Amino acid sequence: MVITTFVVRFIIITTSFLIMSFEEAISSLRKGGFVLLHDANKRENEVDMVVAAEFVTPEHISKMRQDAGGLICLSIDHSFAKTLGLNYMHDILSNAQNIDNQSKKMIMGIAPYGDKPSFSISINHAQTYTGITDRDRALTINEMAHLYKNTNGNKKEIFVSSFKTPGHVPLLIASERLLSDRLGHTEMSVYMTSLAGLCPTAVICEMLDSETHTALSIEKAKKYAKDNAIPYFDGNELVKFTKEH
């Protein structure tokens, strides 16, 4: 009886922690704050800094650039990408007429962690200069979020007339069925912004370690999260939460 009571209490406490952790992450996104998101030990096993695209400022880009250090990318919803006529880069290159078959052997099929890359084209907004500054990248990202919310006019026409490629903001296209298809940071970040009631576009950046020159360890990422009052969220918890709720 004692063991049974202990197990029940443990389950209640664990479930409450999971819900609290999830709510903290969602609350942070809604406020324009960061979330640290780990995918899975058997996948990339990396922690990304994540922020909702519609709230991005030059300060966000600066912090990701300095504290995370990875590639700053914009994850977008699959249907949004389809509306804009965007495709995955591996499909674009595979279908390119001016690339010979020998060169096409370079195109990545399945990455070492078991998925096809979610990369599409990279863009700059037409009002940027070089496109790489914190201000320029924030502008490009903000304008993409605004375009998603735009209910007037043809989104593809606006996209083509307002953005240029190649640029300095790589676009990542989330899988159509999100976590049912792929458990990457692209899908998780888009899904979390959707659950937060925000437009399903998120900026993500891998956290790297300048001492080991590898991905930042889970332990260091959690310490960074604690020191900076940023919610840390495990992708496995997101999958469990989705199934349970």
Which characteristics define this entry?
245 residues, alpha+beta, 7-stranded mixed beta sheet, two-stranded antiparallel sheet, 10 helices, 18% strand
Tell me what the structure shows:
There is one protein chain. This protein has helices at 2-30, 58-68, 78-83, 89-94, 101-104, 134-149, 155-162, 185-195, 218-227, 235-244; strands at residues 35-38, 47-52, 73-76, 119-125, 163-173, 201-206, 208-209, 214-215, 232-234. The chain is an alpha+beta fold and 245 residues long. It has one domain (34-244): DHBP synthase (Alpha-Beta Complex), CATH 3.90.870. Strands 4-5-3-6-2-1-9 form a 7-stranded mixed beta sheet, sandwiched between helices. A hairpin with an 8-residue loop joins β1 and β2.
Give the SSE order as H and E letters: HEEHEHHHEHHEHEEEHEH
What's the helix count?
A: 10
Structural class comes to alpha+beta
Number of strands: 9
Q: Using only CA atoms, what is the Rg?
A: 19 Å
Helix-strand layout with pairing:
Blueprint: H1 2-30, E1 35-38, E2 47-52, H2 58-68, E3 73-76, H3 78-83, H4 89-94, H5 101-104, E4 119-125, H6 134-149, H7 155-162, E5 163-173, H8 185-195, E6 201-206, E7 208-209, E8 214-215, H9 218-227, E9 232-234, H10 235-244
Short description:
The strands form two sheets. This protein has a seven-stranded mixed β-sheet, sandwiched between helices. The chain has a two-stranded antiparallel ribbon with strand order 7-8.
